[in-house]
Automatic annotation (TrEMBL):
Subcellular location: Membrane
InterPro entries: Cation/H_exchanger_TM, Na+/solute_symporter_sf
PANTHER family associated with the record: CATION_H+ EXCHANGER DOMAIN-CONTAINING PROTEIN, NA(+)/H(+) ANTIPORTER-RELATED
Membrane topology: Multi-pass membrane protein
One GO term of the biological process aspect: proton transmembrane transport
The keyword Transferase is assigned to this record: no
Keyword list, A-Z: Membrane, Transmembrane, Transmembrane helix
UniProt name for this protein: Cation:proton antiporter
Domain Cation/H+ exchanger transmembrane span(s) in chain numbering: 42-426
Protein's organism: Candidatus Zymogenus saltonus
Lineage: Bacteria, Deltaproteobacteria, Candidatus Zymogenia, Candidatus Zymogeniales, Candidatus Zymogenaceae
Membrane-spanning segments: 29-45, 57-75, 81-102, 114-136, 148-174, 186-211, 223-249, 256-275, 281-301, 322-339, 345-368, 380-401, 407-430
């Protein structure tokens, strides 16, 4: 009742605003009012989810789905589109925190675990997705029949997106459960590293797949240069910005939470501008990836200065409204009708992806003789997918408009279900391995107690 009555009250008030004529008040401030409604209602629904022993972000997502354009429609599709600017800002902010969680000593200890998990998971996902799309894609009408080149290309591109994980979900659940320990460090490192791997795999799949589909086309001879430039360039820019943050914290250190939000906005805006600018000058697609820049910046602050704890503490204290509105908007953007159109193939790919993640983690754990309980629960920790997956699916539809659009819809339907169940699986895994409530309400607790972890309920 503590959360239900306020949720009902704010819903009634907002319904009145969108239903009654107020001389265009909603038209003038519709987006701002809708953001306020989603923040408040999502907060209360997150509380309800917590009472039900679910992650709070499950409540945020459910709120967006419920009140979004595809169910009750209190927040219409045009308003959701106008809210999409929140995605880039929030993802960049969260990525900064993800980079700050990567400590070099911890990574050195877990590097074999991270590398082997990525290798096995990617291999299993690629093999299965290519086979599934090749044999079942034509049957379900996702790809044209009797076209081997399109079937293989669709499988490769789908696999590259299915390999992507969700650092934003990982950070939100870890922050909420106050998880810490070797298992948490491993899944965080794997999730962040996998994003870089996925960007490379997607570019290669699209490039070589395009040549396979159109044999008369030319292979872009600059593909290696483009990949190297994008990765090195993004990391270089992130390192410079990280050094800038170190100096700000060291010499100014005022209103850090506001500065970090401005920092995230700056990265997001400049990344889009320079991507378009460099693409226009050089004639081929250059992607300046704000997530990689932000992760690098956070990593630099954490590992090249003593200011990492202060950065994480500030982010942790400011993160609640970011998580609330980000996942609420993400929920409002999820179209369950897409799932209904290709539900059978969606469930097949979703089920196989879970199987590949589970078996890949289990095999890596056995080879490295990791604790059995960690190996058993690691795979389902990666179920969730979000921003990067959606962006790549949309990009696929734009690159191959003839057959890419239905494949992109299939990918989005899988991502939708993964994002709904992923946070629940992640929280369950963290609880089963016993790493929840291992630090206080900010990241400083665990870092100051490494080696003698205290339970602070």
């Amino acid at each position: 009742m503590r959360y239900l009555f306020p949720l009902m009250a704010i819903t009634v008030v907002f319904y009145g605003l969108v239903s009654l004529p107020f001389d265009g008040a909603m038209e003038r401030g519709g987006v701002a009012i809708s953001i306020g409604f989603l923040m408040l209602s999502s907060y209360f629904m997150g509380g309800i989810a917590e009472k039900a022993k679910l992650p709070r972000i499950t409540g945020y997502l459910a709120c967006g789905i419920l009140f979004g354009p595809h169910l009750l429609g209190l927040v219409d599709s045009e308003t959701v589109v106008e809210m999409r600017f929140i995605d880039g800002l929030a993802l960049t902010f969260i990525a900064l925190a993800a980079g700050g969680e990567l400590k070099i000593p911890g990574l050195k200890e877990r590097i074999k675990v991270i590398a082997l998990n990525i290798l096995f998971q990617v291999t299993a996902i690629f093999f299965g997705c290519v086979v599934i799309l090749f044999f079942l894609g034509p049957i379900y009408g996702v790809i044209p029949p009797n076209n081997i080149s399109i079937a293989v290309t669709a499988g490769l591109v789908t696999a590259s997106v299915m390999a992507s994980l969700s650092p934003s979900t990982m950070m939100a659940v870890i922050s909420e459960t106050r998880a810490a320990g070797p298992f948490t460090e491993s899944i965080m490192g794997i999730t962040v590293a996998m994003d870089v791997v996925v960007l490379i795999l997607f570019t290669l799949s699209v490039t070589f797949g395009g040549l396979f589909v159109n044999p008369g086309g030319d292979l872009n001879s600059n593909i290696v240069f483009i990949l190297v430039f994008e990765i090195v360039g993004n990391i270089g820019v992130g390192a410079l910005l990280g050094i800038g943050l170190i100096n700000y914290i060291k010499y100014v250190n005022r209103d850090l939470s506001v500065i970090l939000l401005l920092f995230a906005l700056l990265i997001t805006s400049l990344a889009q501008f320079f991507s378009e600018y460099l693409t226009g000058i050089w004639g081929f697609n250059i992607v300046i990836e704000p997530l990689l820049i932000a992760i690098t910046a956070g990593f630099v602050v954490e590992n090249l200065s003593p200011k990492g704890d202060e950065l994480l503490k500030t982010i942790d204290e400011s993160s609640l409204p970011i998580y609330v509105i980000f996942f609420a908007v993400a929920g409002a953007s999820l179209d369950l009708k897409i799932v209904s159109n290709v539900w059978a193939l969606t469930l097949i790919i979703m089920g196989y992806r879970l199987f590949a993640l589970f078996t890949g983690s289990l095999a890596a754990g056995r080879i490295l003789k990791e604790p059995k309980i960690e190996s058993r629960w690691m795979g389902i920790s990666y179920t969730a997918q979000a921003g990067v997956s959606i962006g790549l699916a949309v990009k696929l539809g734009a690159i191959f408009p003839d057959w890419g659009v239905p494949v992109a819809s299939l990918i989005l339907s899988v991502v939708t279900l993964n994002q709904i169940v992923g946070p629940v699986f992640l929280k369950l895994a963290l609880e089963r391995v016993g790493e929840t409530k291992k630090r206080g309400k900010n990241p400083l607790h665990y870092r100051k107690n490494r080696g003698k972890i205290e339970v602070t309920g």
